[in-house]
Amino acid sequence: MTGKEKRLHRCCFTGHRPEKLSVPADEVIAWLEKETHQAIADGFTTFISGMARGVDIWAAEIVLKLRDIGTPIHLICACPYPGFDRSWSQEWRDRYQRILKDANLVRYISCGYDRGCFQRRNEWMVDHSARVIAAFDGKPGGTINTMQYAASRSVPTVCLQFK
């Protein structure tokens, strides 16, 4: 299968960190689970997470949970750089490390932190996907940048918008 053919079966996630959410985390997680099931029904078999706290990690955990019960899907972790989790709480670091260990593929987009590493990670995810699942609050930041990049590349976005 060519890279272009693989892309047709890949879907990525983007969204906010927990402290930026204006709705309960459980509500976002339930929506992510629903949209992941819909993507699977639509033929998506590989999911890409950018591995940030919040939406990205919750989405990765959903994909792994579904894979563990026998759903034939894969998880790619698109990490901005090695050590990305260094400053997080131990709980989030443990979740991050567990996901990396269980993922089908871990890809570090940059060798280390620099000003553009997060945008490069977001663009890499979109460039390797045929759908974006986004949880978005309407404010400027990485999530809207990812959605705008997806639109510029004609990659459809399914969006939970909250304010």
Give a written overview of the molecule.
By secondary structure, the chain is an alpha/beta fold. The protein has a single domain (11-92, 100-161), classed as Rossmann fold (3-Layer(aba) Sandwich), CATH 3.40.50. It has helices spanning 3-7, 25-41, 55-68, 90-102, 117-127, 142-152, and strands at 10-15, 46-49, 74-79, 105-108, 131-136, 157-161. The chain has a six-stranded parallel beta sheet with strand order 4-3-2-1-5-6, sandwiched between helices. Helix 4 (90-102) links the parallel strand 3 and strand 4. Helix 3 (55-68) crosses helix 4. The longest helix has 17 residues, at 25-41. The mean pLDDT is 95.
Entry keywords:
Rossmann fold, 6-stranded parallel sheet, 163 residues, 19% strand, alpha/beta, single chain
Structural class of the secondary structure composition? Answer: alpha/beta
Strand order of the largest sheet: 4-3-2-1-5-6
Oligomer: single chain
What is the class in the CATH system? Alpha Beta
Poorly predicted regions are: none
Radius of gyration: 14 Å
CATH-defined architecture: 3-Layer(aba) Sandwich
Q: What profile does the largest beta sheet have?
A: 6 strands, parallel
Tally of separate helices: 6
Question: Total strand count, please?
Answer: 6
Please name the CATH topology: Rossmann fold
Shape: globular
- Helix-strand topology string: HEHEHEHEHEHE
Rounded average pLDDT: 95
- Percentage of helical residues? 40-55%
